[in-house]
Protein 1
Amino acid sequence: KAGLLLALLGGTPPVTSGLEALSGNTIRSNSHVLVVGDPGMGKSQMLLAVSQISSRSIYVGGNTATTTGLTVSLTKEAGGEVGIEAGALVLADQGVCCIDEFDKMAKSNQDGLLEAMEQQQISIAKAGIVASLPARCSIVAAANPKHGNYNMGKTVAENLNMSTPILSRFDLVFILRDRADIDEDKRISHNIMGLYKNEHACLPGDSGGTNGIHSSLQYSGNKVPEGIAERLDWVQGFQKDALPANVLRDYIAYAREYCKPKLTTDAAKVLKDYFMRLRYSPNRNDNVPITTRQLEALIRLSQARAKACLRDYVLKEDAQDVIELMSQSVNEVHTDEHGQLDKTRGGAGGKSKRKEKQAFLEELRRFSEQENRSEFSMDDMRVVAEVV
């Protein structure tokens, strides 16, 4: 939920000049979030909540969406002229586009999102019309694993049967697994039963939501936990009522419009050190295959974290909260079925151990056919491994 809130707030668009300003191409300031999980984990409910809270949002289903429906389509007018009709991404300009059932979308339709997710625009060259339309929106997508339950023995791309260029454009990837937890199940069942027993008191737009604000003032003297996960649990312990939806919508719209946070030197140093620590670990096998795209994602999320407090500058604490979120996302993506971190699972060419074994056996079989022998030495095995 914290990651979805940062996606709603967005970052600060950099000031451009010269040819970039004339062409309309800017470095994107919107964050994209992907939620992957087992069925029944409430992914669609989170997407609906995001679309309702955002001042401008489009909600589409991946199983019924096409490339032209997401981007741009051409129509013939009565006089024989050709007109342009905007798709979901163009209509969600400066807002949020929620895509449910992202895994059901055909790969040919997913490729239509590549330009919009990175360049924040959609180019069209059809029927004598050459144009570029703005699509400066955040994409929040939810997907189910292709075999029902999420298999930790496979990478995210293998679980979703999705191309890696799309996955690399998501700033945050969260994996929701349906695991048996007594405390968590008690809390969820209590909330569900409370919704049906006292329906009006649980509506997000109810005026009773202000009770939690007075409670937070009462507990303001206590020491606030440092980590964002402990802090969210600490707030949840005494702020029982949700903030009214209309207040939250106006707050986010105000923050997006008037708050333009800038990076401070301390925050920039924290983000840079974290990026370098991930990319160049002391143990060479622990390196995470990330690029500068993830560094830009850290900057955008830090600016969104400062917007949540209506600040004009990104503080060191904002950068530390974002690093905790990014670390959780990176760890979930790189954790294998044994609960250990496998740093080779991410990046553009990430593979699970099972895929690597299959590739090694295929290369060994090809080497056997070329050499016309069935016995190999350790040196031969090392040569084949280097090829793979």
Protein 2
Amino acid sequence: KRPRRPTSLGAMHRLSRFIRSSAKRVSVIPRVSSRQFSAGLVQHRHTAENNLETKFEFDEDSKKEIDRVLAKYPPQYKASATIPLLYIAQEQAGSNNWITLAAMNKIAEMLEVPPMKVYEVATFYTMFNREPVGKIHIQLCGTTPCMVAGCGKDGIKKVIMDELGIGEGETTKDGMFTLQEVECLGACVNAPMIQVNNKEFYEHLTEESMKALLDTWKKGETPKEGNQNHVKTCEGPQGKTSLKGGEPGFPEFLDIDKMIADKKAADAKAS
């Protein structure tokens, strides 16, 4: 057997002194980016409106939608419905666009999985809000195309913060607006852009059009979603430069039920 290496208390003390002295020499501690890689805090924090005693039940409309979703999966693969059920819980009337701990526990019970399996999904995706958010939840894309196109601190983000008087991850005092910077939302060609309440995209933004959107929401009105530079699809400021021969046609969707019926009829005729 190899001899056990003796522990040197002196060496441990010297290492401890070195670490403390190194920490004192560090004058600037780098700040961690405030961009959200999951919605809100990674760890749960009990609050008055969200704790182990909070009650949650799906309403009848949600239950019908859940039955429709679960019918897509074999019984042993119900866990695949975690994302759809989280979305149903968040969208349910009265949920105010966020998911409580009780809702996640209810979903785990329905899917017959450990609650941690549901927590893991809810903490990964920015589409799920685990803390209360404003009526207008602004998710600002901060990934490379949007960043270089104007969503940086001196562009769209600054307009939002200045107009609303809030910072990243904060909600206005009246509960109307929440600002959250998130990862790519898949509209890179139309950068810069924001997503509102997990549904509406507002693209090709400028500082002026962003301010106009905020003014419209403040009036209690709903602005038109989509491109904000008055062009179609993903045309740039110079307008359409290619594919000028008209709108491309799209094939019709295949009628699978008809195809199956035709196949059965052909098989029956052949036999």
Protein 3
Amino acid sequence: MIVRGIHMRFLVPAMFCISFFSFTVTHFFGLPYFSQHRISTKSENIVLPAIQQYNRLHLRSRISSDGEISLTHRITDNITSETENIYSKITVGATTVDSKNKIKGLCPFVSPLLVGWTDMSVIASNSRKEKEYAFTSRMSIMGLKTGGKYKPDNCISRSNVALIIPYRQRKFHLKIFLRYMHPFLQRQQLQYVVFIVEQSNGSAFNRGMLMNIGYQEALKQGSFQCFIFHDVDLLPEDDRNPYTCPENGRPRQMAYSIDIYDYRPTPKQHLGGVSAFTVTDFQLINGFSNLFWGWGSEDDDLYRRVVHHNLTVTRITDNEPAFANIVRYRMIDHRKEKSNPGRNLLLDGWKHRLINDGLSDLSYKKLHVLLTPLFTQITVDIQQTSQTSA
């Protein structure tokens, strides 16, 4: 009995030591090996229900009048069915643990959620029919937060983007834009915020100044890797067109070809429509000029600033001409804005204004900042004075 008591006295501590050693090896030294398996499991659990929910909510719009599923949604179905296999095989490098104790890795370089070309006529038709509360509810399910903020739930996005849209009296365009661009950006697994910078009535529209205001106000809301400056009437036709951040020193011209110009490539010097800059590069060139009131030439001035600072304007087609078919844009019909009659004369003096015209002398009155379910709205009053018109 004495011997048995001694055995029991040593056996319990020994078992505890063995268990503690096993736990330590598994959870610390074995973490890199086990994290890959846990990430893929989490990805399947989080992403697939969201995709299935997205498809269920879209069931009615997917069926045409003759009972056939449209080609665009047949492509989506194929992507969705393949996603089950893709997500279980994703290999990621860096990992982190969020506040909900979910282990996450970087999102893949090419998102498995992409569907390719989209029939814009279907999008426009569905946008007219779908009630706003239905769309905002659907986006909320997909993870969109108040203020138009989104980040993937299953992985860490490789790009943190601020989307800046200058705006005034384009309610119909904005409705279509938001209903198209939110799913578009989410399929690319981007972390992003949509900022609508609205100019109040009074002065002529100043696109460049609104871009500068959006840049400054966005940085007050948080930090971003890059900014995409985007007209509200342009929609990318193919979600393989990357809205990721460019490299430093290489701003990206994104509106390569537009339907109203028969998809002919825009000139090399064109930097309008849609363009992407890192924070470093946009700060370096002092942003847009603030002096172009009315339509035209602020993008030409921007191009000259970029070249002057030895930055290289890039296009996705530079190394792969075959990509020309995926960087097409559709322009929503609109009334042409009144052009600035003095824009050419103003453009001629671009070099003399580099330091003192742009972010450095930006002046505006902020009327309000409103966080809506789909975007952050910044309404400003800007007035054309003698200092800002010549």
